[in-house]
C-alpha cells in the first residue's frame, strides 16, 4: 500500500533513484552535479509541499510498503502542466526487494486507481528498455520521441479512444492524487 514518504527516507530514495539513473533507468544526468543535488531538493520539496521544484507542478512522493510494513519501493506521481495530467515520473524498487513482485504490485495499485479515471503518461529514457517494455505490456502506447531520445507514452483512460501517435496536443484531465493510508 502507498503512504507519503517521510523525511527519514529521503536519503534512501535519493540513492535509489541515482543508482537507477546510473543504470540508464532515468535521465543519466541525475548522477552528475548539479542535477544530483537538484533531485534531492526536488524530493524534499515534493514531500513537504506536494509540488515539484524543477517545474512547479503538483506531485506526490509515495512509498510502497509490503505486508510486513517495509518500504520496498517508491513512485513520484506528477502533474504534466499546471494542475493537469498524471505522469508516473519515477518509479523504483529497492534492490533487496526486487524479484518478489513488489514492483508489479506497486504498479498495479497505481494504475488500477489512476487508469480508470485519467490518461496516464510516462517517459522512458533511451536506455530504459526494461521500463519501456514493461509499459508496453501494461497497455501504454508510444506517442512521441524527444530530440534527446526520451520516449513519451500514454495509457488512455478506460473507455477513451487513444489519440494518434505523434499528436502534439493531448487532452489533459485535472491531476489526480493517489489516496494514502
What would you note in describing this structure?
The radius of gyration is 15 Å and the shape is globular. It has one domain (2-155): Gcn5-related N-acetyltransferase (GNAT) (Aminopeptidase). With 181 residues, the protein is an alpha+beta fold. It has helices at 10-22, 35-49, 102-114, 129-137, and strands at 2-4, 59-65, 71-78, 86-93, 120-124, 141-145, 151-155. It contains 4 helices and 7 strands, in the order E-H-H-E-E-E-H-E-H-E-E. The longest helix is centred in the first third of the chain and has 15 residues, at 35-49. The N and C termini lie close together (8 Å). It has a 7-stranded mixed sheet, sandwiched between helices.
Topology overview:
Elements: E1 2-4, H1 10-22, H2 35-49, E2 59-65, E3 71-78, E4 86-93, H3 102-114, E5 120-124, H4 129-137, E6 141-145, E7 151-155
Parallel strand pairs: 4-5
Antiparallel strand pairs: 1-2, 2-3, 3-4, 5-7, 6-7
Helix pairs in contact: 1-2
Q: What's the mean pLDDT score?
A: 91
The helicity comes to 25-40%
CATH topology: Aminopeptidase
Number of helices: 4
Q: Quaternary arrangement of the chains shown? A: single chain
Encode the helix/strand succession as letters. Answer: EHHEEEHEHEE
Report the span from N to C terminus.
8 Å
Structural class: alpha+beta
How many individual β-strands?
A: 7
Q: How many discrete structural domains?
A: 1
Question: Which regions are unreliable across 5 or more consecutive residues at pLDDT < 50?
Answer: none
The share of residues in extended strands comes to: 15-25%
Strand order within the widest beta sheet: 1-2-3-4-5-7-6
CATH class term: Alpha Beta
Question: What's the overall geometry?
Answer: globular
Using the 3D structure, state the CATH architecture: 3-Layer(aba) Sandwich
CATH superfamily: Gcn5-related N-acetyltransferase (GNAT)
Largest sheet composition: 7 strands, mixed
Amino acid at each position: 500500500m502507498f503512504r507519503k514518504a517521510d523525511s527519514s527516507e529521503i536519503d534512501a530514495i535519493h540513492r535509489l533513484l541515482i543508482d537507477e539513473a546510473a543504470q540508464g533507468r532515468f535521465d543519466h544526468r541525475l548522477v552528475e552535479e548539479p542535477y544530483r543535488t537538484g533531485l534531492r531538493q526536488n524530493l524534499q520539496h515534493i514531500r513537504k509541499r506536494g509540488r515539484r521544484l524543477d517545474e512547479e507542478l503538483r506531485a506526490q512522493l509515495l512509498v510502497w510498503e509490503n505486508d510486513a510494513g517495509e518500504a520496498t519501493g517508491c513512485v513520484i506521481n506528477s502533474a504534466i502542466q499546471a494542475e493537469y495530467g498524471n505522469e508516473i515520473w519515477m518509479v523504483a524498487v529497492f534492490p533487496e526487494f526486487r524479484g518478489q513482485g513488489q514492483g508489479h504490485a506497486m504498479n498495479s495499485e497505481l494504475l488500477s486507481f489512476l487508469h480508470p479515471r485519467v490518461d496516464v503518461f510516462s517517459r522512458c529514457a533511451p536506455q530504459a528498455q526494461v521500463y519501456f517494455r514493461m509499459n508496453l505490456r501494461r497497455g501504454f502506447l508510444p506517442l512521441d520521441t524527444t530530440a534527446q531520445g526520451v520516449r513519451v507514452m500514454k495509457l488512455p483512460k478506460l473507455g477513451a479512444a487513444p489519440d494518434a501517435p505523434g499528436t502534439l496536443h493531448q487532452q489533459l484531465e485535472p491531476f489526480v492524487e493517489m489516496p494514502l493510508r
